[in-house]
Amino acid sequence: MDFAEWSRSEINRLRATAMAHNAQADGLERALERYETEQKPKPAEQITSEDGPRFVAPTVRRGRKPGRGDKNGFALEKLKDVPSPGANMDSLFKAFQERFGVNYKRSSLRALLFHQKKLGNVTSRNGYYMLANSVLGGGHGAH
Q: Residue 112 to residues 52, 80, 103, 139: CA-CA distances in angstroms?
């Protein structure tokens, strides 16, 4: 095996290992967020009934966090002028964190891209994402 063959195989191995580590980190991050959410004490509310006062934890509805714009539209816009072979996850994730903050999760971007693929707006090949031909040809955009 010459240097070029070894280099290509080593690059592929390192990228595969990095993707596996990213997936593990994303899973651990989600578990940590669930853990921290469950650890927060919930305030009790006093209710007076025929049996006397009692305390009940209120149902908490979370409002939307203030966003910085449409993420689906931003993804499609980022992919609009990307040269072949497309944009990889790392470059898209960096752009999303610059736009939506460092707390934006890689798993959220993957879900967004998966959703856009189901809608037919985005295609992927070999880890690169690009707009689908229907979007490029002036078809219907993201919903």
A: 50, 16, 16, 20
